[in-house]
Amino acid sequence: MLARETSQLLKKHQIRLDRRKGQNYLVNDHILARIVESAGITTGDVVLEIGAGIGTLTIPLARKASKVLAIEQDKKIARVLSERLRDLQISNVEVLVGDATRIDFPPFNKVVSNLPYQISSPITFKLLNYPFEYAILMYQMEFAQRMVAQPGQSNYSRLSVMMNLCTHTELLFKVPKNAFIPPPKISSAVIRLVPQKNPMVDEFFINTCRALFQHKKKKASKALIQSFHEISDRDMERRDIRHIIHKIDHQLMEERVFKLKGEEILIISAQLKELMEDI
């Protein structure tokens, strides 16, 4: 039913979906129902949806929530969404036309989205700057697996560290390629993300983490020396950088980056920040 309805709407409005823009529309009724159920939306919720498309997810969310903030960048598709909402007499959806990575989000308390894949990373980090209860988000499988990866695993990354320190993230279920039109190249997964405040995760920590993971298979000391420009824009000699790095916890500096726990990177960042302030 959902697949047929979607195809008819796209044909009616002469819309050609573009994979490069992450326009992969969910057409599986069962998966849609699971997402909505996982979201646990109540009549008091204001839900943020990023990449609303023609309203596949927007409409069932609107029937449960107090309000839905539906962001869609494509102006033509946003007009189709607004038209559908009028036809269905749904008045509690605010359609926001724009780039979700650039616009400010109105207040919301939950997020439910089939995210455009090319903005998965910037949107995930942007969301962490806002207060909300939890998010139900669909990502490409590879990205979702990186979000929940643990130290020592091959796909452990800067993203994994940030998710571990700033959220409680759980992979709920997988979504096959044939659940979308057009089918993406790889499968997807639905994630439940609960934000957790961590005051130690500041800009200095983020820069330190970025420097480390540019050389994730090397020892932490070598990674920091080689990517010190990510941490400081001061014009420093390599020997002076080594001198600073050698003052940080020796055991942590000898560990391979991809084996470091988030808490250990916090220690490295805190010690490095203190040393830099003394220069």
Automatic annotation (TrEMBL):
Compartments it resides in: Cytoplasm
Molecular functions (GO terms): RNA binding; rRNA (adenine-N6,N6-)-dimethyltransferase activity
Enzyme Commission code: 2.1.1.-
InterPro entries in UniProt: KsgA/Erm, rRNA_Ade_diMease-like_C, rRNA_Ade_Mease_Trfase_CS, rRNA_Ade_methylase_Trfase_N, rRNA_adenine_dimethylase, SAM-dependent_MTases_sf
Entry keyword set: Cytoplasm, Methyltransferase, RNA-binding, rRNA processing, S-adenosyl-L-methionine, Transferase
Superkingdom of origin: Archaea
SMART domains in the cross-refs: rADc
Pfam families membership: RrnaAD (PF00398)
All residue ranges annotated as the Ribosomal RNA adenine methylase transferase N-terminal domain in the record: 31-197
Binding locations of S-adenosyl-L-methionine: 24, 26, 51, 72, 99, 114
Gene Ontology CC: one annotated term: cytoplasm
Family: Belongs to the class I-like SAM-binding methyltransferase superfamily. rRNA adenine N(6)-methyltransferase family. RsmA subfamily.
Function recorded in the entry: Specifically dimethylates two adjacent adenosines in the loop of a conserved hairpin near the 3'-end of 16S rRNA in the 30S particle. May play a critical role in biogenesis of 30S subunits.
Name of the protein in its database record: Probable ribosomal RNA small subunit methyltransferase A
Top-level taxonomy: Archaea, Methanobacteriati, Methanobacteriota, Methanomada group, Methanobacteria
